[in-house]
Prior knowledge:
The structure is a single chain. By secondary structure, the protein is of the alpha/beta class. The chain folds into two domains: about 170 residues, Carbamate kinase, CATH 3.40.1160; about 140 residues, 2-Layer Sandwich (VC0802-like). It has twelve helices and 20 strands. The strands form five sheets. An eight-stranded mixed sheet has the order 3-6-2-1-9-11-12-10, with helices on both faces. Strands 13-18-20-19 form a four-stranded antiparallel sheet, sandwiched between helices. It is globular and about 75 Å long. The relative contact order is 0.10. The model has no long low-confidence stretch (mean pLDDT about 95). It binds adenosine-5'-diphosphate, aspartic acid and magnesium ion (MG).
Amino acid sequence: MTLIVHKYGGTSLGTAERIQAVAERVIETKKQGHQVVVVVSAMSGETNRLLSLAESVTKTPSPRELDVLLSTGEQVTIALLTMALKEKKCDAVSYTGGQVCIQTDSAHSKARITNIEVERVQKELQQGKVVVVAGFQGVDEHGNITTLGRGGSDTTAVAMATALNAKECRIYTDVDGVYTADPRIVKNAQRLSSLTYEEMLEMASLGSKVLQTRAVEFAGKYNINLRVLSSFEEGPGTLITKEDEIMEAALISGIAHNSDEAKLTVIGVPDKPGIASHILNPIAEANIEVDMIVQNVGLNNSTDFTFTVHRNDYGKAMLILKKTAKDINATDVIGDNKIVKISVVGVGMRSHAGVASTIFKALADKKINIKMISTSEIKVSVVIDEKYLESGVRTLHMAFGLGTE
Ligand code: ADP
Ligand code: ASP
Ligand code: MG
């Protein structure tokens, strides 16, 4: 008997009616002769509500207690969905992450899964039950509850699919697949029928939050067929798979955007060996992740050094840099937290020249100024002013012919 993992996001479980609809869909898959494991998120808005509750008590919650709090959202939905399944005469059982031994490291709020013990789940499946597992959570080696980062239920689903050797992992959400751009911004974005792990990984890490980046990483590593589908309507969705299983790769598969970034520049840095590490070491020590880095060509033995960080880390990074600037005799530190990053992604880029120049021309025609550029084999990213986010995404979507008129 084949096993299929379903995952439902918050909007798909937002009301009692939606939970009933999810139960019907699970029963349908079961009736087709499959074993089913269901991974669920908290009801829509619940994780945010819990976060603001914590904030109303303290500005600096203990990371351990914050995870204890946030993990409750998913405990509600596993129980409700299991009740709904039982009500419909489908035998089912719910489990928290800890109960099915989703082992993680101890990095609260961004824990990584290290191991899953599947015996208990397998036994239940063999008895004909649907197993409903809480997404987004695990336990560390000391038994502390951990969470996997926002959107982490996607990763729970892929990890369960891997551990149980599932045939397919279906991510049911509020869109009917992965689109050429966020459909909330580009109305004529197109659903992609398939794309490679690599492309989806770039899209996700560059800001397309339809899937958590780690989930795609996991799926690619273990070759899990991942399908993104709507929980509201029937349809083929989008298959994310290996490159050689995709008949004809498009030049560009999509446009991603990320509005969570901020940039900082140290001006007048003495141009000598060791300076980049001098600037970035204290940033890394403060646990601040750096994304794009640009260092200008030195002139008169001095240079400018610019990098981007998550917008939440902007204030902290600025304080650190001001101190560093003094230590290394730099002239000044300036910053901008009203920027966004837009990226064009596609494996076809490897064998085609001219993608970057198409981007630059399209943005120039709209008088959108580019502040930073970075490229890799299958993506080109630009940083622009936040006010051009929507027009920038739409312009590039059009420039690569991704939408229908
Ligand atoms: P869930 O609660 O089901 O996990 P998410 O909100 O995490 O759902 O992800 C679905 C959302 O991702 C969509 O509503 C859409 O606005 C957004 N999104 C961003 N980029 C894309 C894209 N390229 N294709 C599809 N959806 C996207
Ligand atoms: N409930 C968590 C969140 O809102 C996890 C998830 O939805 O995947 O981020
Ligand atoms: Mg999500």
